[in-house]
Amino acid sequence: MPGEGTPPQGPPAQPVAALELLVHGVGGTTPEKMLDDPRTVRITGDDTAAVYRRADDVDDAGDTADPDGAGARPHARADRPVPEAYVWSNLTSGNGTRALWLLLLPFMVVNLAHWMRPAARAGTRAVRLYGLLVRLAALSLTVLLVAAACEVALDLTAWQCAGTHACVERHTWLAFLDGGWWGVPGRRLALAALVPTALVALLWYLSHRTWRAYESQEPLPRTDGADTVTTLSRPGFWYGRRLVSRLRAAHTAAGLLTVAATVGTAAARHDRERGGAALLDVLGHVLEVVLLAGAVCVVWVVCGRGRTEERLDHKIDRHIVRRLPLGSAAVLALSLVYAAWSRPGWTSSGRLPGDVTFGGIAVVQGAVAVALAVVARKLYTWDPEHRSALRGLGGPAVVMLACALGGVMSGGVAQRVADWLDGTGGVLPGPPVLLTWQASVIPAVLFVVLALCALLGRRALSRAKAQESAVEKEYGVERGDPGRTRAIARARAMAALTDRAPLLVGVTSGATLLLGTAAVVGALVSGKTPVGAAEGTYAFVEGAARVGQALGSWLIGFAFLMFVTWGRRAYKDPHARRTIGILWDVGTFWPRAAHPFAPPCYAERAVPDLTWRMTTWTRATGGRLVISGHSQGSVLAAAAAWQLEPADRGRVALLTYGSPIERLYGRWFPAHFGPDALKALHEDVDRWRNLYRLTDPIGGPVRLPDVDCVPFADPLEYGRTTLHPLPAPLLGHSDYQADPRFARERADLLARLGLGARVPGQADPACVPNEAQAP
């Protein structure tokens, strides 16, 4: 391993430039806090993400090569590295309106599933099939979202409420649709279609704009070949421009075709049933054929190409990117004109045919999730890794959760809008039966989740009780304060609940699959049961479903408000970001490989930033570099190190603390952060030190020899001492620098790199590499 030799005994003949690049974590911070100096200067970057240095250190690290070729400039210091702070918090924070990204949570979740495939080196076809199935699941979610918008705007509002005089009297803003030129159902549908069309246009605009702002940063050109151990080292990993543009075009077209189908099929059904004009009947059949052809084209584009990571792919499939959305928009315009054509005697009654649409989407999503589970299990058996979440089934479980989120949100919102429009009158048919049944399963799913959480909490308290004696023994107290002991033991037990997340995800996913299947069957049976035949057991089930539906519709409304509230707090309040930000930052760390409308990937800006800074500095100075990352910053640091060429990587050392790189990323994304990938990174970089606490719910060991230190004590002292006359707090995931051992570990790492003198006995003997422990 590079750098394993004995450090130089004396100062070098010429100073060697050294840099310590600090990368903060989820909570975000300021360069002044990171550098512990009120006077900082921006070295490079912009208002979104930048590198800062202390004002006194601006000319202290030899950033440019000596014109005579001697390496670093004469004033480069060898006694300590010059610290720099990379501040990227503006990539994931902003004003409160960005909380609306939380409404696209199903898109982010399904995009996560793409990166959760098992770490199988064999079976290229199976790997491609895995990605294809995830992209199809993502496409179904777009269709589901737009179909739900059509259900609210077209069916419930324009078709049912605007076609019922009693409902129009209750909602006077719909009065202009009651009679007159707009009284024709087709024209009302054409007007209401502008709402879901505007939603699709907004999604396209956000995806295009955020791509330019976040993900259009071109990675550093590579001259070496990509490593085979992890995909994160591939030159084109952080530049998925071609695939995102194709998927954006396909999903935009799918949304527009969904709106066109909702409007056009309603008019075509009337023409077939009532025997309208021959020309309209022919146009209806032509429109249906065109819609089917458009759907086939969309599916072909989604299935036709995956990610290109082996090289930087600047090519754009312009014939697809431009023609597919424009063609779909033309089909939508044709359907609007067709529906708005005058049809004497056409009145709106009942519901639009939404049961078939939502039922078909639910069946397709269930089939895709099951097929994905089969493929994932096959990949796992080729290269099993016992640390993988759910033994390779993490991706399928997350896909099921994404589909369940989409279905629950669609059913709950539709039912809530129906209740608002209808009030207590009961004059509207309401949403499709399937959406009503889906809303009814929300309380059942919530009960399962709460029951499991209660069980895990009870077990955590039992483990905390069992650890109390070990805590007192560790701190060397015989009869300690019971409250203090209990608090420390509970903090450790609650932090360990992170390792039980696969169980929670697996049980919740299985419950949603079973209950979702029951909802489809219930909707099918209730739709075929004659009026008055609902007796006995079926009457009880139907009554329970109605109670669940009413409760579920209110729960989804409450959840909507909570999403927005939490989102605003997460973007505005740093303390809230530390609580829920890690889940959001894990989701937006990964590129948009399955769903183009998912929230933007900040790492496609941050990783190239770090790679460019590290490479240009090491090549200009020939010096050593330590990249120090906390929490999510450690993941960015590792991802940037993988993007370096081997010669540059060998001059870089890693210092990580509170790092989820193995505990979360290694378990849930084994193909990219698995044991082999982490081991290869450890062998390639100069040194790697990892610090963690047992009370940290996020950070943990990386499980590599000579990398992990003995866990930091938390709190620093059990009781009051001379150095700590006041009770020491439990720090958990924050303030690692507050522990004196952090400074010792950092100094020890720098000494082993030949940067500064190492004081004998300075580091904990259990924390130094194995070869240094030999006599």
Automatic annotation (TrEMBL):
Coiled-coil intervals: none
Compositional bias (Acidic residues): 57-66
InterPro entries: AB_hydrolase_fold
Source organism, top-level taxon: Bacteria
SUPFAM superfamilies: alpha/beta-Hydrolases
Region of interest (Disordered), residue spans: 54-78
Keywords assigned: Membrane, Transmembrane, Transmembrane helix
Transmembrane annotation, as ranges: 99-117, 129-149, 189-206, 249-270, 282-303, 324-341, 361-380, 392-414, 434-457, 503-527, 547-567
Protein name according to UniProt: Integral membrane protein
Native organism: Streptomyces roseirectus
